[in-house]
Amino acid sequence: MDGATGISVTEPSWNVSRTLTERGTDNKVVVSLRAPQKVAEQEWRCDFSVTGVGPEQTHEAHGLDAFQALIVALDGIHSVLSRSGRELAWEGGEVGDTGFPPMVPQAFGLGVVQEVQRSIEEVVHRFAEQARARRSREEDG
User: Fold this and answer.
1) Do 98 and 111 sit in the same domain of this protein?
2) Cα-Cα end-to-end distance for the chain
């Protein structure tokens, strides 16, 4: 109950979650995320939690709009999981693949973002070409 207004204040429920499993154990790590909420003019907040890798706490990710808050939250989840040092996997993923990839840091400007994106695209293209060549050799072979 909020003492100033007399209104009962409850935390919104978690909107989505993903359970990860630690390699070689039955340990579970649960990642939960709430939908972004507008908290002020040009400020949005997206809460997330990661349980099973340290003290349980809710993290707040902020952005100028809902999408930025969501992107910052997803990057925060990646950061918490990476810092845990655990070998985690989500259902259907490989060990080490949590399904939360690192984001391209935008704080360094558009030029850096574009350079990193070009590098990623070049690597993906190279791997795709190698896979096509392998498949072609297997079909011919």
Assistant:
1) no
2) 72
Domain count along the chain = 2
Domain enclosing residue 133, as ranges: 104-141
> Tell me, what DSSP letter sits at residue 121?
H
Q: At 84, give phi and psi (nearest 5°).
A: -65, -25
Residue 101, sorted as left (phi over 0), alpha (psi -120 to 50) or beta, turns out to be: beta
- Are both 118 and 80 inside the same structural domain? no
Same domain, 79 and 128: no
Do residues 47 and 64 both lie within one domain?
Answer: yes
Structure tokens, 111: 């030029």
pLDDT in tens, 87-138: 999 988 899 999 999 888 888 899 999 999 999 999 999 999 999 999 988 8
Name residue 94's amino acid: E
Q: Which pTM value belongs to this model?
A: 0.78
Does 76 share its domain with 140?
no
For 14-56, write each residue's pLDDT tens digit.
799 999 999 989 899 999 999 999 999 999 999 999 999 988 8
